[in-house]
Every structure is written in C-alpha cells, then in structure tokens.
Amino acid sequence: MGSISRGGKNAFRNIIRTISITMIVGLSIGLALVMVLSLRAVQSRIDSVKSQIGNNITVSPAGARGFEGGGEPLTQIEMKSVASAAHVVKTTYTLSDRVRTGDATNLTASIDLGTLGNRQRNFTNNNSDRTQTTPPPDMADRQSTNGGTTTTRTFTMPIMITATNDLASASVAGGSKMVITAGTLPSGSSSADIAVLGKALAAKNKLKVGSTFTLYTKTIKVAAIFDAGNTFANGGMLMPIKTLQALSARPGEISSAVVQVDSISNVDTVAKTATAKLGSKADVVTPTDTSSSAITPLENIKTIATYSLIGSLVAGAVIILLTMLMIVRERRREIGVLKAIGSSNLSIVTQFITESTVLTLLGSAFGAILGVLLSNPILKVMVSNSASTTTQAVGGPGGGGFGAMRAAFTSGPGIRTALQNIQTTVGFDLLLYGLLAAIIIAVIGSAIPAWMSARIRPAEAMRSE
Known about the structure:
Layout lengths: L2 H8 L4 H39 L2 E6 L12 E2 H8 L4 E12 L14 H15 L12 E6 L2 E6 L4 E6 L14 E5 L10 E5 H6 L7 E4 L2 E10 L9 E4 H7 L5 E2 L1 E6 L5 H12 L3 E4 L2 H43 L1 H9 L4 H51 L6 H9 L4 H4 L9 H27 L3 H7 L1
Parallel strand pairs: 6-11, 8-10
Antiparallel strand pairs: 1-13, 1-14, 2-12, 3-6, 3-13, 4-5, 7-10, 8-11, 9-10
Helix pairs in contact: 1-10, 2-8, 2-10, 3-7, 8-10, 8-11, 8-13, 9-14, 10-13
C-alpha cells in the first residue's frame, strides 16, 4: 500500500477524533475566512467613502450658512482663479433662493406651515423686531397697511429654489439624489426659462411636464418632475444657474461652490490656493473632519479583523501541529515497524503529511461553510460595536461633540452612511487562496513531528513502546 493511500485511510482510523479535529480546525478556518471577508468589505467601503467625500472642497461666502448666516455673495468670476488651479477636476456652482406665493411667484407651497412653522415664525419675529407685536402662535396671518388700507394675507412656507450648473448630480434641501419621474432633465448650462419641480410642488399646483408658471414676472416651463426621497425636498425646484441668476437679477452670483480635486492627497494644496485667492471673502471647508469621522469606525473594524485573522491562523497552525504531534507519538511503534521493513523516512513523512492534509481539507470545507454563513452577521456586530464606540467618543449625551456628529451625519457620506449596508462577498480566488494556505499549514504542521520521529532507529521506536 502506498504512503499516500495509507495516510488517507489513517485520517479515518478514529472517527471521533476525525470529527473533533475537523470541527476545531473548521472553526479556526471559518473565523479566518470571516475576518478576511470583513477586511475586504471594509476596505472597499473605505475606498468608496474617500472617493465620495475625500476629494471635494466647499467654498461659500464668508459667514454664510444657508439662509441663517450673513455675508456677501461670491461670483463665478472670483471663482475662476480657483476653478483653473492645478489639480482641480470640476467646479460645481450653486445659487439658492426662496420665494413665497404672491411675492415672486404664482406657485403655492406644497408644505403647510403647521405648528412647527408657526413656532419658528414667531421666534424669528420676536428676535427681528423687539417692538413688533407678535401674533399668537396659532395665527398664521400677517397684516400690512398701505395708504390707510389694511390687508391680511396668510403666511406660507417659502418655496426653495436650487440652481446649479450640474443638475444631474444636484440635491434639493438635503434630499437624496433625485430621480426624474417625468420629462427630461435639462442641461445645467442652459439659460432657458425652464425648471424641474419636486413631485409634491407639482402635484400641489396641478402642474405636469410642459405646464407653465410665473416666477419673477417671467413665464417658466416645467421641463421635468423629480422625486428626492422626502417631503421637504419634493416641495422645491431645480433650475439652471444662468436662468435663476437672470430672473433674480443676480448675474454671476453664487451661494456656494464645490471644487472636486483629482486626489485626496491634493485637497489641502487646493484648499490653501482657494484661501489665498479668495481671502476673507470666502469660507473654504475641506472634508478632512467628515471623512475622518466616517472612516474611523471602519479603521477600527479593520484593526479588529486583522488581529482576529492573525489569531485564527496561529490557532489553526498550533492545532494542526499539536494534533500531529499526538498522532505521531501514538504511532512510534508503527513507525518503527515500517522502518524495520524498509520504509524510507520520506515515505513515512509523506504518510503523515497526507493524513494531516485530509484532516485539514475536511476542516477547511466545514470552515468555508461557517465562514460564508457567519461573515455578514459577525461583520454586522463589529459594525454596531464600532459605531457605538465612535458615537460616544465623538460626543456622548450632553457632550460638546454632538455638533461634530451631526455635521458628519448631514454633510455627505458621514459615519451613518459609511456604516450602512456593508456586505461581504465570497470570491473564487479567496477560497482558492484559503485552501492553499490551509494545505501549507497542514504540511508544515505534520512534516516537522513526522520527520523527527522518522529519524529514530527502529529499535529505539520499538523499545519506547
């Protein structure tokens, strides 16, 4: 009987031991596979986060934060020096506006003022004019006197307008990326009197593609209707930036600009260039803090997975080594008999390597099944723990870090987005590499004790029994 066939049969000489070794080795290999899959999934997400938020710089007028800040608007002419700087790939300009029914448009807002809107309105009135008599919170009317005539009209929520030179990637009022539900999205470079309405605003005013409405005394045509994923965003509209600049008599003005850099390593250089060229006119914000807060929990998961992978591989190797040491020690007499009848050291070592390889392959098959089944649940637990730890570190209850956490959640792909829907995927190449690694461990773990025993003379082996 050949050494290989004898080694294969020896793997099943003791069924209980075979099953035990298979399960123990399988657990070790399964854990290693889970960690490798987790490392791949997390690294893929890190690369994705960096590509989304790592290369963009936001430039806005100094002191301006939406409609709550002050400052003077920037112009596209001022931004040209930044847009043409080295490493700048693309510059997206945005101009924001808001109008109310009867003031600058015949559209009716799709969002009701409600209790929250009335509360905010009265808070604003109280702070803007201390001598003004503010109506009770449940009143949504305001009065004005002109030539002795008092008129009363209902206070309504404003309609948000976002104009940009890149409509395809635009978002409205914090909504997700829009989906065009009707019509065709116009070019951001257009100067035509056209607009893309949110589906709630269009439904409220009974408008469809091709309908018209009035804005700043001009007739505007509805080019398309979008769905941005939430009620507030769907109550706004999008326009080409040149169109809104002309309608609102703000030629060349912008509310903000997003500068896309060719590489994350050049972000700081471009930011310094923008700051130097625009000076005190603009606030230049880099994604360093946001990307760091989003990537930190992912890096924590990578660290845990790396140490766990090393530990599981070492455990697997030690298990194989100790198992084969035990088996070889048990069979010293058998080794002596084989040597006495003329078996070479190589054939004896081959026999034990074959036995170890069979046991390892059985464990690998069991471990692969465990790894595939448990990879996503284990990764989910690591993600949950890492997210919880990062939240407490950034700003726990009552801590000063809440603002930083909120900013990370709301300014692009933050911590919450980075940790969402991370899934592991098993590739054929990974299984192949894993099988090769298991065989190498099996060969090394069995060859060492087998070679040490094979070198013993037959008489000594027989006497030791």
